[in-house]
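Here is the promised in-class demo. Please do not try to memorize the tokens; focus on the logic of going from shape to residues.
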């Protein structure tokens, strides 16, 4: 492990345009469960499978059930950034890291101070009326008891990308450009199984691809350095 940490430090020292690509594993050490780990949401029991609840069809057909699950499991307001979020924000301030591309929807990178964040799957912090597009904050949703409604009567929907929904074009373009221009890409805390998000790492053409993840992924063999350990442990050493 020490040897790998030293390799990682050397790679970071040599680089000036680092991009971090992350997923739910970045926030588990803040207390937010991921999807696919053994303690993840997909391994817990609910009335419906979470993959189904978090789909557009389910949202439209069983909106009340969607919100019961969403308020219970997706409320990130009570959590704080951890070592990884904080260290990444520091690296951006130093000018080394140029962007964070995240699949997370919890807003913790920004809470830690990161500025250039591409949220591929949106954010629980933004919510819009489906009818008149009026903005609502996360408190409005998480403090509601029933289906959150706008003053115009429309349903307020979180600006998060549900299964079956497309990603925001500007966000994809920004993320691709950041990854294409990166001299080093650090991937962390993601199973790399959700598409099209995980396909974006294919835009990286350099030879400093680092993968830090507790479980193995299908991309391990493509990385120049693989660390199968916790992000908190690794980032606290940097
Ligand atoms: P995933 O499929 O649940 O994979 C998470 C990966 O992270 C697993 O391979 C774990 O081994 C690894 N992991 C977990 N904790 C750590 C840790 N402390 N250190 C290192 N590795 C760790 O999640 P993905 O992000 O790959 O899947 C994409 C989904 C998950 C996106 O659509 C997200 O919106 C969604 N999600 C987001 C959050 C959040 O915003 N915090 C929480 C849960 C799910």
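The designed amino acids, position by position:
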């Amino acid at each position: 492990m020490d040897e790998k940490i030293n390799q990682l430090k050397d790679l970071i020292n040599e680089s000036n345009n680092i991009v971090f690509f992350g997923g739910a594993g970045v926030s588990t050490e803040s207390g937010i469960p991921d999807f696919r780990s053994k303690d993840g949401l997909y391994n817990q029991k609910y009335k419906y499978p979470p993959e189904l609840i978090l789909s557009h069809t389910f949202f439209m057909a069983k909106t009340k059930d969607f919100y019961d699950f969403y308020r219970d499991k997706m409320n990130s307001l009570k959590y704080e950034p951890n070592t990884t979020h904080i260290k990444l924000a520091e690296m951006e301030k130093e000018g080394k890291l140029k962007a964070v591309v995240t699949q997370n929807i919890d807003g913790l990178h920004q809470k830690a101070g990161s500025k250039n964040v591409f949220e591929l799957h949106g954010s629980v912090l933004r919510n819009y009326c489906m009818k008149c597009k009026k903005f609502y904050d996360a408190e409005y949703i998480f403090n509601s008891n029933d289906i959150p409604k706008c003053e115009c009567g429309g349903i307020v929907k979180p600006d998060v990308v549900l299964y079956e929904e497309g990603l925001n074009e500007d966000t994809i373009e920004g993320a691709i450009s950041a990854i294409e221009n990166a001299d080093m890409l650090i991937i962390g805390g993601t199973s790399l199984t959700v598409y099209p998000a995980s396909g974006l790492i294919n835009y990286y053409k350099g030879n400093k691809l680092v993968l830090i993840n507790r479980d193995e992924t299908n991309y391990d063999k493509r990385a120049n350095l693989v660390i199968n350990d916790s992000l908190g442990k690794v980032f606290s050493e940097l």
